[in-house]
Write a sequence for this structure.
């Protein structure tokens, strides 16, 4: 039988506000345990939450960016459960009236373009962290993260493969980073995702029983966890067994999923509107202002890169995945201008050498030492024949690491290409003189030997000869 | 000078301001009065005598400050308000050793006004009760009759003020917890409009109902205390950013009740009222008419749903509000804990009293999946109808009058076996909290049968505290001098 996979994602994005959602404690990551803590976020008796309006702004902007209805009135609710990292024993979240209603994003996979629905976006506070001592029989609680603002973005069950789920996840992450409201770091947990996965026979209308997958800290984990889970569920169904609705944890070492312990499942969160917070009313004027502040988003930028720069869709997709990479590209093209930095050439350099160096250095385009103007100059040097593409690639890692004017760099290294015909003529003559046998064979009709002569000339000139001129010279002299 | 404690807050404030008495002398007089009366009434949970004396001396060294409205005035606060460096127990074992490192906003404002804080008053555990018998520490006795309760939940505040241990107190009123003890103890108590006084630092019982309110021996005293604590607080999103009226001025300028229309809700004046309460309250209404007021009948048809609605809302909120007392960060932690669930269950079972546990369980139930719509959501809807009753009444009248409680102070142990009967004590007070409106309890004489104080409550529209205080002052002035409690 053929099966269809159905996937919905719940994404938790930590917002990059300076202070927490309901108090003025810092959100700085990596401080000493319980350094960023006050009576409010540590749940002392009698204290009250006050909303950080920046959180509402960021949540609303995300809603606008993914075509959501932004609700003029939304309500905070308490989600009640006991856990030591949750000092009030309830999490302030939103339940019946979230800040953003239905919306969608467009994703692109090998299967083509597709709209993925977004059910809702709501604001909530993060919990703290329990740290269990290995040596002592003790647990410790760090409340630094307690009250750090989150938005939860819930998708419709619209994805049909792990690849679509990853594409959706990447699109959402990209938008969050574009908006400057989340750093999108999956490993540090500032961008987290749970996946609801089920299978059903193709053609069946009702959904299969779903499992909720947690503990996936990278796009690769998400892909592998879903693939594993889909196979597991299909096996169960084929064997006539039932899929159990449960939460399963992904084990990155084994590449498998396994059920979370049962107790966690029995929660009745007893949501009710938080009486300490008045309903959040977003004034029309704020919404207008926030909408006006939205940057160009990945999809629009992608389309513009195709139309404005004539880039292939693939290039446009790669270059716009990160906002700073896209900015770098545009700055490079702009700096190239008269110097001949054509967009496709710049794109090739960026998708190849530049991205590889960025990834190796583990930095974003914004942190590169090599300025866009210098990359533009490098492309220009090749165009003008001052250096060969081969040499440019050879020196690129060093140039990337140091930054600076590439022309000065290649001149200092003596790598400038020899385009002086008289200088090259000497080398060509010398090679022809040294290779009498080959010259005769060439003239006898074995024109493939041209490459051999070019190679010899290059050797003599330590690779600096302009290959076009050498070709022409050789053809003339051998004719 | 040994009779300084008999002065009202307003009187002692004037004596302090002119330097006729020192802050130290006033504080000492209160401490002496506490020493004399506390063995009888047990109004306090803690006394900060040394700190109070030090503070009084420091104030004396600086000299009277006209900018400080309560300069040198000794006060005692309900132990539900957090006080920096001073134990705050909420009348519960679970907070037995809890010392906050932050002041409630109302407490900070009293300090800024120059008040001397003597100690913390007894209360029903987490403000849950109408008699102060639910305190985990001890019961408080009524200064009028030591065999009777002072009312609750701010019973310690009512008793301490009535007995002259201090010049005023702050309580909290979730369903009548300021007005009831004021009524039972023969003093004035005011529950402000929801949002008029910051709740920051008020340990929450029912967050959407709780409001801090003053208790004092005169209407003007009450106005002075309210003036000191009212106003918007950026730390409390539910506090309202509206101008604070001149309460003291309203009281001082009040002359008569001409032009005032008082609504009399038929549901508050019918059956169930004890004859002595009915008589004393009717006499007060007659007096109001003599002073120029008109009366009109109004209807609070939702009164019969009020108790059920109130207890669903209050207990639901309480079940969540009290969840933070889990033994993890502060307060009582069991010594018997094995694993995490054990820690929670044992700490909370050992730390909370029976009534608190009952309310947490009921509150948890009404919020549970499958019951939420039938209970909490329904209660929220009824609540809007209750508010509508008030809004409609205030189209016909300026304020509403009725008894605070169907009976006068009852004997200790009188209702402890029957929590439902105890809940019915609140029948006349809770609608006001559900509607979020202000109300004032005014002593209107002693009951014919018991000789105990009877309280009349005046209820008004949102932010009408000045109107309530002015009307109460006119009645108070016409009543003549109030007798001093007979048992202390």
């Amino acid at each position: 039988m053929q099966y269809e996979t159905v996937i919905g994602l719940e994404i938790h994005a930590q917002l990059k506000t300076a202070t927490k959602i309901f108090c003025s404690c810092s959100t700085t990551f990596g401080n000493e345990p319980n350094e960023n803590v006050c009576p409010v976020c540590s749940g002392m008796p009698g204290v009250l939450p006050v909303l950080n309006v920046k959180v509402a702004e960021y949540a609303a902007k995300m809603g606008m960016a993914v075509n959501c209805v932004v609700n003029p009135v939304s309500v905070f609710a308490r989600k009640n459960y006991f856990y030591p990292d949750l000092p009030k024993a309830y999490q302030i979240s939103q339940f019946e009236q979230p800040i953003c209603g239905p919306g969608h994003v467009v994703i692109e996979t090998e299967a083509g373009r597709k709209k993925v629905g977004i059910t809702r976006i709501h604001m909530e506070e993060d919990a703290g962290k329990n740290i269990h001592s290995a040596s002592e029989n003790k647990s410790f609680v760090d409340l630094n993260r307690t009250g750090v603002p989150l938005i939860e973005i819930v998708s419709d069950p619209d994805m049909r493969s792990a690849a679509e789920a990853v594409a959706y996840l990447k699109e959402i992450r990209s938008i969050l980073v574009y908006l400057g409201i989340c750093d999108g770091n999956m490993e540090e947990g500032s961008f987290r995702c749970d996946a609801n996965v089920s299978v059903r026979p193709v053609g069946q209308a009702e959904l299969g029983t779903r499992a909720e997958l947690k503990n996936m800290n990278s796009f690769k984990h998400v892909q592998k966890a879903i693939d594993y889970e889909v196979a597991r569920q299909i096996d169960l169904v084929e064997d006539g067994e039932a899929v159990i609705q449960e939460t399963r944890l992904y084990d990155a070492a084994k590449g498998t999923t396994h059920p979370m312990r049962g107790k966690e499942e029995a929660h009745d969160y007893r949501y009710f509107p938080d009486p300490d917070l008045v309903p959040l009313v977003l004034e029309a004027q704020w919404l207008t202002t926030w909408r006006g502040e939205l940057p160009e988003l990945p999809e629009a930028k992608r389309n513009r890169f195709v139309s404005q720069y004539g880039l292939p869709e693939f290039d446009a997709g790669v270059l716009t995945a990160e906002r700073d990479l896209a900015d770098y590209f545009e700055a490079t093209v702009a700096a190239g201008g008269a110097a001949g930095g054509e967009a496709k050439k710049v794109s090739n350099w960026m998708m190849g050498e530049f991205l590889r160096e960025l990834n190796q250095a583990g930095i974003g385009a914004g942190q590169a030492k090599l300025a866009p103007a210098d990359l533009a100059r490098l492309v220009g040097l090749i165009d003008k024949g001052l250096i060969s593409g081969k040499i440019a690639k050879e020196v690129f890692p060093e140039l990337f690491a140091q930054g600076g004017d590439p022309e000065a760099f290649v001149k200092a290294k003596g790598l400038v290409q020899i385009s002086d015909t008289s200088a090259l003529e000497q080398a060509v003559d010398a090679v022809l003189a040294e290779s009498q046998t080959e010259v005769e064979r060439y003239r006898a009709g074995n024109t493939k030997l041209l490459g051999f002569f070019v190679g010899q000339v290059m050797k003599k000139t330590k690779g600096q000869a302009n290959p076009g001129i050498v070709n022409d010279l050789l053809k003339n002299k051998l004719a | 000078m040994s009779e300084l404690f008999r002065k009202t807050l307003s009187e002692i404030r004037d004596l302090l301001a002119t330097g006729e008495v020192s802050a130290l002398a006033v504080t000492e007089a209160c401490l002496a009065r506490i020493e004399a009366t506390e063995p009888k009434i047990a109004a306090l949970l803690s006394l900060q005598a040394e700190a109070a004396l030090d503070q009084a001396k420091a104030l004396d060294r600086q000299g009277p400050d006209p900018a400080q409205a309560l300069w040198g005035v000794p006060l005692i606060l309900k132990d539900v308000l957090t006080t920096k460096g001073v134990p705050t127990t909420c009348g519960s074992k679970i907070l037995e050793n809890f010392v906050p490192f932050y002041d409630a906003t109302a407490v900070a404002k009293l300090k800024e006004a120059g008040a001397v804080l003597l100690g913390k008053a007894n209360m029903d555990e987490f403000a849950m009760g109408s008699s102060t018998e639910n305190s985990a520490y001890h019961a408080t006795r009524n200064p009028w009759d030591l065999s009777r309760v002072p009312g609750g939940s701010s019973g310690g505040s009512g008793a301490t003020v009535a007995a002259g241990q201090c010049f005023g107190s702050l309580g909290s009123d979730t369903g009548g917890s300021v007005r009831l003890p004021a009524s039972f103890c023969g003093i004035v108590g005011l529950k402000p409009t929801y949002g008029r006084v910051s709740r920051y630092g008020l340990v929450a019982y029912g967050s959407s109902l709780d409001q801090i309110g003053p208790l004092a021996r005169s209407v003007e005293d009450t106005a002075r205390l309210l003036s000191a604590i009212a106003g918007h607080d950026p730390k409390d999103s539910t506090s309202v950013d509206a101008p604070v009226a001149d309460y003291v001025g309203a009281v001082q300028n009040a002359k008569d009740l001409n032009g005032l229309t008082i609504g009399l809700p038929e549901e508050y004046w019918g059956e169930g009222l004890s004859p002595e309460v009915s008589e004393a309250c009717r006499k007060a209404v007659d007096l109001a008419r003599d002073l120029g007021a008109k009366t009109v009948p109004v209807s609070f048809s939702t009164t019969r749903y009020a108790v059920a609605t109130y207890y669903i809302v209050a207990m639901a909120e309480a079940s969540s509000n009290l969840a933070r007392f889990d033994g993890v960060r502060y307060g009582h932690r069991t010594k018997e804990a094995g694993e995490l669930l054990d820690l929670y269950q044992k700490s909370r079972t050992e730390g909370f009293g029976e009534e608190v546990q009952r309310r947490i369980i009921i509150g948890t139930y009404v919020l549970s999946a499958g019951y939420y719509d039938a209970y909490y959501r329904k209660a929220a809807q009824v609540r809007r109808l209750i508010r509508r009753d008030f809004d409609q009444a205030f189209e016909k009248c300026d304020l509403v009058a009725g008894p605070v409680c169907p009976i006068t102070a009852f004997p200790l142990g009188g209702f402890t076996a029957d929590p439902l009967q105890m809940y019915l004590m609140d029948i006349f007070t809770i609608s006001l909290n559900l509607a979020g409106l202000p109300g004032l309890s005014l002593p209107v004489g002693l009951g014919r049968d018991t000789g105990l104080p009877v309280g009349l409550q005046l209820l008004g529209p949102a932010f009408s505290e000045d109107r309530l205080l002015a009307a109460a002052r006119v009645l108070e002035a016409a009543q003549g001098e109030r007798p001093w409690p007979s048992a202390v």
Remarks:
- The longest strand of chain B covers residues 439-446.
- Residues 197 and 230 of chain B are 5 Å apart (CA to CA).
